[in-house]
Amino acid sequence: MTTMIGRRRLVFHLCLISLLLFLSSSALPSVSAAAGRRHYIVYMGGHSSLHSSSATEADLHAITNSHHAILATYLGDIERAREAIRYSYTRHINGFTAILNEGEAAQIAKHPGVVSVFPDRRKKLQTTHSWNFMLMENQFTDKATAFWKEAKFGQDVIIANIDGGVWPESQSFSDEGYGPVPSRWKGTCAKAGIRCNRKLIGARYFNKGVLAVPTDAKAGAHADLYSVRDFGGHGTHTLSTAAGNFVPGANFSGAALGVAKGGAPRARVASYKTCFNVPDSCLESDVLAAFEAAISDGVDVLSVSLGDDINYDYFADGLAIGAFHAVRAGITVVAAGGNAGPGLGTVSNLAPWMFTVAASTMDRSFETYAELRNGLRIKGASMTEALLPVRKFYPLISAAEAAGLRPNATRDALLCKPGSLDPAKVKGKVVACLRGDTSRLSKSNETAKAGAVGMILCNDKSNGDEISPDPHFIPTVQIGYKDGLKVFKYINGTKNPEAYITGTFSRFGEKPAPAVCDFSSRGPNVLNPEIMKPDVTAPGDQILAAFSMSASSEATGPDDPRRFPYQFESGTSMATPHVAGIVALIKAVHPDWSPSAIRSAIMTTARTKDNTGNRMTEVGGGRTNSFAYGSGHVRPNQAANPGLVYELTNNEYLDFLCSLGYNTSSIGTFEPGHKCSNSTRWSVFDFNYPSFSIPKLGAGPVTLTRRVKNVGPPGTYTAQVREPYGVAVKVVPDVLKFEKYGEEKSFRIMVAAKSKGAAKDFEFGGLTWTDGVHYVRSPIFFTALFSNSLLCKPKTLDPKKAKGKILACLRGDIGRVEKGKIAAMAGASGMILCNDKINGDGDLTADPHFLPATQIGYRDGVALFRYISSTKHPKAYITPSTSMVNVKPAPVMADFSSKGPNTIAPYVLKPDITAPGVNIIAAYTEAKPTDPSEDPRKFPYNILSGTSMSCPHVSGVFGLLRAVYPHWSPSAIRSAIMTTARTRDNARNPILDSTLEKATPFSYGSGHIRPNRAMDPGLVYDLSVSDYLDFLCARGYNKTLLKLFSDAPHECPKHARIMDLNYPSIAVPKLKGGSSITMTRKVKNVGKSPARYAVRIKEPKGVSVSVKPNVLKFNKLGEEKKFKVILKAKWNGTADDYVFGGITWTDGIHYVRSPIAVYVVTA
């Protein structure tokens, strides 16, 4: 709700104008036998490093017993505690997982030895050319392979993943040519249907968490749940990407033929399985157990392609906790940034001790062409090994022409659905199919079974030009929507159309590359924006790697019986092991480097330009920045010799936690003896991260401190700064001289907003230290805060400068009225309040200011400040406020008013109507000031805005109608108000929204209320309580649930349909192209009698509407008549979105209007 006095605040009102209650199943009380009990992780910090390395079995049992004892004090019994605990973490991580209720968890969280208690949540699982693309190999020069050779291809470094298991028989994990397992390896191999070897040296599974989750899906998953074997493919793919062997001849369905290999192909690998092919796997309790095992086993690098859609506090996140303890033990943890892009603030795995990876493309594409007899050659995508029998043109047919005789035959055939094609019409031909309803591979399978020689798969409008190289069953090419139109136009306009489909070509050197993938999650870091995330980007699109021979990939789908030893996958899950492989190579060359030093080396040598020499873009060419790619795209060869590194110690991570509010007691639970400094001098801005992030840069300068360690020869480095727009950057000192290897130097970077040219949005720049050979790059990011005086904040205005003048203040931070009060106290004679960019031009409010004032929009404010800055003696005058009526256009929809469609029951159009809700003056309480924090004045009447204000307007009209028609039901009154509403403004044009674009029924429902017309609606759509109960029946409610709010028993009809609810509006959330839908309504005569009503129809674009009967005759008052509305989507004129129309019943005096909202889909 928008208030007119003081700040915008949210007020909840209950407006009861309808009997209908919409209830979702999630709102119903749980009747589960285990209601209220679930798994919680009780985190108690860590064990000392001495304990971790020298603990005996007796020590470990003692810790487990202590966990039992702690839990018993809350559960009341030691046996209950033993039964409740699923995991005790005893070596590195201190804590346990137990079944508790919410109250028990809350009590345990108060224990002085407990850091955090949080629910056991599920985490999500997030090539032959990628290493060549990163210049690790090149046929023309040895320079690119020097690092690989120096690192001995990662020999004897131990890389592990926490994922979905491994397919041990894959050639990527063969141990041919490997020597003995490194003696420092302490891990084991689970004896459950697999054998480890000298390459795959460890394999374990962790299932206690998932086994405790009740689900029927586990019944047939015994082999999966009790084995480290990979039944999904994801774990095998990521592990082989990081460290798979050189495997000549690897391909996917004949495409991308080459030598498969991981980044560190001679490294040893281990698999820790925590993800299973059942619901609710990848649980944090299992993940934590895997981390603890990996630390004890002696892993060097962990690749973790897991994440969450929600970012939790670091010590309420099992993955962050496990990673923290791994990094403390010297293990680099590389984690996926997530696949929730391209929205801002979606990146996950934000802990500063984790190495967070985004995904980008390579310079390879897979091209297949459709060649038409008319000379048209269309580029598409495929990955099909099969070729057409002969290099010639083949007859081409639209799949719609091959329809059988069943219902919806033409539409089903066009979509090449199962059993829809007539083999006699298809055999020996190339078939053009439309995308939609069924999978892409299903369509090629159907055309193959019908005898076609090839398929052209044409995208529908909703999929546009997004095409995928799939391993089809017959020669196939998928083409975009516009190209598909050309194909169908050629077929329809040609007597004997013919086509040829080429083989698939792997094309290299595509430009631009890399480009950030759309799915890759973006920054900023929502937990600590001072730490930039993601850190880097790496290849994550169409990555070929080893796969499980028990699983189909996302590309093939679950219904494809074919299995491929190497498959393509995309995601940040695929980018992550690329970085893990690079980490292993650096570890092989620099075994003494810490995880933070290795991360710094990779980040500061990354590249932000693509292979055209321009700044990296998003897929499709859109501009992007460090929120998408972090420090840039990884460059392994440069990372081996970075020159300088930004290193972090374990104590600095602890100081970082201290800065977040963790006290010495909390920190001591996982690092005994560490004390948080009482000094206020330490700042998160001094955290020695290889990037610089200032989320709120005010008028004053901000100083960040960093230090760099020389890991190259002695040399002198000079600072080069690329200043972000609107900010000055100074580095002190700007020259660093290093005399020896390992020497560290500190420097400060001072950032200040320039007085002119403030940033419009997020701004990016960079700092590079260079000795002429090495270029140590770090991105700089900031957002600017305007000066406090510009915002007219308390104690910021100088009365000597303000007295007698009109002040131009910027909106933001404090309330609008408070700004006027501060200006008045400083002696100003007036104020012009200028909207900031966020509030734009439409959000203007008439406030009762303390001095003459006016509020103006953003663009007008820009013009005003331009006038002030360009004029020697700027002057202004503020007119008195005047009340104007009959302003046009009106009404206009308010920007705060919520919009449809109805997300719970989309067949019911919401909102119902609109009514006045902006600047509404009404009685107000005088018990307290209007806004105590800003305005001490009291008013008997006040101006407020919001749907809270429009709601009582409708309630008032409702009351008037009830007084005139006391026997009318609530639904009849609602119908009268809705069907007489108006969709045009006082200029007789369609009602506009707040951006002055044409509004739709999703904004105003049936229109703006007209009380006088509602008094005599002519006809009404009535509903009984039984009708509402039938509606709930159609929503899936049974007798038991209906009893919760119905006094009398109600029998659900056998065929209840939501769309037949007798509502005064019509909504269809999905109308398939070429098909029709019929809805039933009934109207009651409440006007004159006899009466004759004829229907008028306004068809939504691309939809035909018919009403049967189209004339209704009434002989008396109260008589009801039924009619049917038939909606049919036209093939020509499909919708990009919802389309709108309406029907009106009229007798020449009354006009009973009902809006129609339809979403048309062609698939």
From TrEMBL:
Residues 1-27 form the signal peptide. PROSITE patterns: SUBTILASE (PS51892), SUBTILASE_SER (PS00138). The active site is at D163 (charge relay system), H234 (charge relay system), S573 (charge relay system). Residues 40-125 form the Inhibitor I9 domain. One of its GO terms (molecular function) is serine-type endopeptidase activity. GO terms for cellular component: apoplast. The keyword Cell wall biogenesis/degradation does not apply. InterPro entries: PA_dom_sf (IPR046450), PA_domain (IPR003137), Peptidase_S8/S53_dom (IPR000209), Peptidase_S8/S53_dom_sf (IPR036852), Peptidase_S8_Ser-AS (IPR023828), Peptidase_S8_subtilisin-rel (IPR015500), Peptidases_S8_3 (IPR034197), S8pro/Inhibitor_I9 (IPR010259). Residues 686-781, 1060-1158 form the Subtilisin-like protease fibronectin type-III domain. One of its GO terms (biological process) is response to symbiotic fungus. Residues 154-617, 887-993 form the Peptidase S8/S53 domain. Keywords: Apoplast, Glycoprotein, Hydrolase, Protease, Secreted, Serine protease, Signal. It is found in: Secreted, Extracellular space, Apoplast. Residues 413-486, 791-864 form the PA domain. Required for arbuscular mycorrhiza (AM) development during AM symbiosis with AM fungi (e.g. Glomeromycota intraradices). Belongs to the peptidase S8 family. This is Uncharacterized protein. It comes from Linum tenue. The lineage of its organism: Eukaryota, Viridiplantae, Streptophyta, Embryophyta, Tracheophyta.
